Amino acid sequence: SSGINAEYGEDEEDIPVDTSQLSWPGYFMHYTCLTGRKTLAVVDGMGEWLADFFGITGPKYWYIVQEYERQKAKEEKERQRGMRDGAQRLEGGVAETAT
Predict the structure, then answer these.
(1) What pLDDT does 1 receive?
(2) Largest Cα–Cα distance in the chain?
(3) Rounded to an integer, what distance in angstroms lies between the CA atom of residue 32 and that of residue 24?
(4) How far from 23 is each of 15, 26, 29, 49, 85, CA to CA, in Å?
């Protein structure tokens, strides 16, 4: 093995094949592969459409991640509010002691 992974794509369909020059097994193999590729493309497209239709394209536990982010934002907001309230109390306390 050369260690190189070949990636096969739809470029294989672009190669013109003269089917009149093929033997029966070659002819049969050519059309079997062509039909298989086209069938796979259709089934893959239908699978993507169905997954999108039923809403199963997102992460399984996405709602937990969103809840965690909401909780974190809420805690940050409360922490900032507490710092602001504490600073206002200090300013108010300094003003009272100065008078």
Answers:
(1) 37
(2) 107
(3) 12
(4) 18, 5, 10, 39, 87
Q: Sign (positive/negative) of CA torsion 25, 27, 28, 29?
A: positive
Give the separation between CA 63 and CA 72, rounded to whole angstroms.
14
Tokens of 34: 């062509």
Dump pLDDT digits (tens) for 3-55. 555 555 555 556 788 888 989 999 999 999 999 999 999 999 999 999 999 88
Residue 13 DSSP symbol? G
Cβ-based neighbours of 17, under 8 Å, separated by 6 or more: 30
From the number of C-beta atoms within 10 Å of its C-beta (0-12, 13-18, 19+), residue 37 rates as: middle
pTM of this prediction exceeds 0.85:
no
